[in-house]
Amino acid sequence: MKKLLALLLAAALVLSMAACAKPQGTDDTTAPSDSGTETTQGAEAGKYTYTDSVVSLATNWNPHSYQTNDDAYPQNYIASGLYSFVFNDEHHPVEGFEPFTTYAVIPEMAAEEPVDVTEEIKASHPEFGIPESATSGFAYTIKLNPNATFDDGTPIKAVDYVESMKRLLDPRLLNYRAADYFGSADLSIVGAEQYYYSLTQTLYEKLAYADAEALMAEGKDVYIDVYAFWNASSEYTDAEGNALPQYVSVNDETVYGENMDDAFSGKMLITDYASYFADGSNPLYQALNNDNYNEDYASTYDSLVGCFASDEYEITLVLEKSLSGFYLLYALSSNWLVKTDLYDSCIKETEGVWSCNYNTSLETTCSYGPYKMSSYQADKAMHFVKNDAWYGWTDGQHVYTDPTDGKEYTMYQTTEIDTQKVTEAGTNKMMFLKGQLMTYGLQAEDMATYRNSEYCYSSPADTIFFLILNGHKESIGKREKDASFDQATTDLESMTLQSFRKAIAVSYDRELFAATVSPARSGAYAIIGNTYIYDPASGATYRETDAAKQVLCDFYGVDTSKYADLDAAVDSITGYDPELAKELFAEAFKEALEAGYVTDKDGDGICDQTVTIEYCMSEDSDFMTKTIDYLNEKMNEATEGTPYAGKIQFVKSAPYGNDWSNKIREGMSDTVLAGWTGARMNPFGLTDLYVNPSRAYDAKWFNPNQHELTINIDGKDLTMNLTEWSDALNGVVVNVDGVDYNFGDGQVDVETRVQILAAFEGTILGTYDYLPMLQDGSMFLLTQKAYYVVDDYNGLLERGGIQYLKYNYDDAEWASYVKEQGGELKY
pTM for the whole thing? Predict the structure, then answer.
């Protein structure tokens, strides 16, 4: 499965070289060596070291629990999927295509393509509940590569996949990435979700407010998720020292947190904050008994979960929803596999809380990919060397014919990968020019000098970086009540007003923003980026469709009748309207006064408070300073002559490292330029990012179950909430008024799916939780040490990644060459 990863805007605009068809980009940089010659000391003939840098070094690359693109970095080198995508050539021919013009799929950890066994499993395993009408797409056997081993030579068999799946779904650990294999996930495995929640006695189901209100009127228990709503935790206790549960009844008068400065009870919350629930922004829940609760959960796996060993080197997967063809192979192009004996040694329990530190250090890391980790220094550097136990060195599959010289070569000429943490673009540039890094992402000040260099490359990327705006009213309220917060001079609550958020949205010229802070990127106006391909066969992108163009015209109020065509209408969109911004800021100030968020005690029409918006940083850098200075400069221009003139300020947070996404989700920091990367070939799956509470940045203040969307399908209006639309679009059967709907791949024509996706995108834009600012892209210099086998950019494979990188010099020759050039190279 191509994982969707949280991605933070950073200055490093370099090509990610990990592998073909991997999630694009990384939001990290690395730390420099102290001298310009240090990286070439001891350079060896016959060694080809790829020297890389990241902004934030990975801390957790456990395939069961990582969350961010930073943490996914090592997985790209040390793991292999069941299948992979490579360029077509004479070794991997694709009929009708010239070499290196499209992709071919090859088995990796698998031995051959999946075999559909839906009919057989339906008959032999009725417990898995394959629909009676289903004849294909619900069950597959996959023969495994018998030559695949872990880096210590231990053979990898079917039992390893099954035991790894058990650990991924372990109900004690509640692993973050387990959701990639159940629910709305493409590869949704039968029984996975039930097993995952085996130790959860009570499940809490979100209620529409009208339903919750009816239950409360009858005196029945309705629950608040106080960990989310009140930002509380188990550290809150009652008078007898009992820890606070996550869900508290609105009828419960027990006071929790007397040891804190914000004690509360469930009854107090529903009384004092009734409007916060009534508007649908904060869900209420009903408690349901979990019929699958079982303390002896391990014994239920075989009869419950559709992932089992059907032979020593064969697994069978049984799916909740049908999946086939390209999307099945795409979903299987990564892996859940772990080395279970090492994994188990990393599991620990502390005061009833279970955790696992597998793949968080050199000692806890195991490889089954082309490289293995050889050293790791937290917050500083990591190093990889070739994994001699990898099957790919001898299987005959990992070779290609060079399109220039016609000779056969083995993929992965790189012998070692050295990755350092460097936070400043200037340091990256210095290291690159000294031959110490393989790529350098051009900054605004570099464009005139290097953009026409023969070593300069430009690549599109998946991510839309949107300015995420904090709407977590409860968290903001608690921060304002802190003893150190001065409400007479500072305000946070204004930013929750829709008029204020709309004003910010039209205060920035996106193209000017990109040109000023990150010229390799461009302005963004949508939630879904330019590279997402909705038709794998033709390579057509979602943004090229009329539906995707029309939704932008509708959202930005463009009258398409005034333009020659939709393309011209879309091209007219700027997202920038300074006059409207001033009107909206005036409207927001009036609303803020009425709500008591701000004051105007002297009656001069100017806000007494400064709305202070904390910008959430992973690491501080000159790039962050430039970005935040720009946001403040243009905000001051937009608010001139309004009640907020000079009264809105973006300020830097402390460096939060890889915890930045949690700070945003919890409302403890206010904004960030961030987005998502991955799954380029399946834009339909992106909808889950905005409705899944474990993924959405705004899950604590936006409830997609409360937001209905009506779409005309085949001449008939159909109304569902956003979660239902997302589920149906991704192959889940959703019942509305007794009728089943499934808009997944192969269930309806692709035009209908695109229509639904566009309507969904427009709705998310209308929340103003996500303000599109930058379309990711890179313009970078590639070292003279190496070159790409394929110069032309490919939508799926890019330029082939590290698999197709060839070297002009080995390490010893490179060290000599750099020295001959006086220690600084010219590009």
Answer: 0.76
